[in-house]
Here is the input.
Amino acid sequence: MVGCGTWSLTLREERRLRVFEIRMQRRIFGLKRDKVTGEWRKLLNEELNDLCCSPETIRLNKSRRMRWTEYVVRMGERRNACRLLMENP
Here is the structure.
């Protein structure tokens, strides 16, 4: 996720990214046998989140974007990146 600090995601893109992330987790972890019925079933989203210890991609994106913003603000007002961030280009 190099460079994700500058991504600006719309709600639609966030939703699509989350769906993709869940789909890949389901493919990685596969099905689970139900203890009561003994049948195979898909894992619930909460179960996938418990199994996968890495943070959600969207949350990671937002935290890195905030870190990038703080970095640009510390640059000083004379730098172009800070001016573009503070003003409407």
Q: What stands out?
A: Residues 8-54 form one domain. The mean pLDDT is 80. Residues 14 and 58 are 7 Å apart (CA to CA).
